[in-house]
Design the sequence.
């Protein structure tokens, strides 16, 4: 098989949670460029509409659905509707996330629950639904979790404490490993991308607070760019990664190499 064909996603349907902006939209651009039809979910319809128009300008077919992963009761019905209206989901990118910055001793319980519910519980439920409806019956699928280097290491004490976020992303790292082992003989691969610091709406406050420290402690001395996740996202979503599963791969400019 020519190498280019291993990366070809023509005829595939990719569901990307939190896909209306930031890293999710960048991943949608990458998968769409290689032929996938993309389904984007997010909480805000106006942002989804803007993302759909942006992708259409790039020649990418996108379908958009409002969905809140912390509303557990809505998830299964949302997936059923997507499958009914668009088709069987071949690729699931669990990108939606939430964060909260506060010293641990002062961290509000409702903020802790918000982060854990979106980053872990909602991710589990939508993954379960897609597995049951699409991937396990057909014996094929790609699951790509967007974790974080925050799930691989502790927090720099000079930065705002984010214990709930670090905990949730650490959970997602091991969720990736455990699910990968369970799915390995069922045709479904499960891997995660662990980004370092990328400029997004969610990281805006953190970067504004500690950009100098971030750059000083990143061997490449820069933040992530708009194309830096695309190659890995495509690899993990395609047949080019057919013998890869259970891997948590950092894209961080060298931070975790220190």
Sequence:
């Amino acid at each position: 098989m020519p190498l280019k064909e291993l990366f070809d996603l023509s005829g595939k349907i990719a569901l990307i949670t939190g896909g209306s902006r930031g890293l999710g939209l960048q991943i949608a651009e990458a998968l769409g460029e290689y032929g996938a039809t993309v389904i984007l979910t997010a909480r805000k319809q106006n942002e989804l509409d803007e993302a759909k128009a942006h992708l259409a300008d790039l020649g990418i077919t996108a379908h958009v659905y409002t969905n809140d992963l912390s509303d557990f009761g809505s998830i299964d019905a949302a997936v059923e509707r997507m499958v009914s209206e668009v088709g069987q989901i071949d690729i699931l990118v669990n990108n939606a996330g939430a964060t909260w910055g506060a010293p641990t001793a002062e961290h509000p319980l409702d903020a802790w629950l918000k982060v854990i519910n979106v980053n872990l519980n909602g991710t589990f439920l939508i993954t379960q639904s897609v597995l049951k409806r699409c991937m396990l019956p057909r014996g094929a699928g790609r699951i790509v979790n967007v974790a974080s280097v925050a799930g691989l290491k502790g927090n720099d004490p000079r930065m705002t404490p984010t214990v709930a976020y670090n905990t949730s992303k650490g959970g997602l790292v091991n969720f990736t490993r455990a699910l990968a082992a369970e799915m390995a003989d069922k045709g479904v691969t499960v891997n995660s991308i662990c980004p370092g610091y990328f400029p997004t709406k969610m990281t805006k406050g953190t970067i504004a607070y500690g950009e100098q420290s971030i750059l000083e402690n990143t061997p490449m001395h820069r933040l992530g760019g708009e194309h830096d996740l695309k190659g890995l996202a495509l690899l993990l979503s395609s047949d080019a990664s057919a013998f890869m599963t259970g891997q948590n791969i950092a894209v961080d400019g060298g931070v975790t190499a220190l």
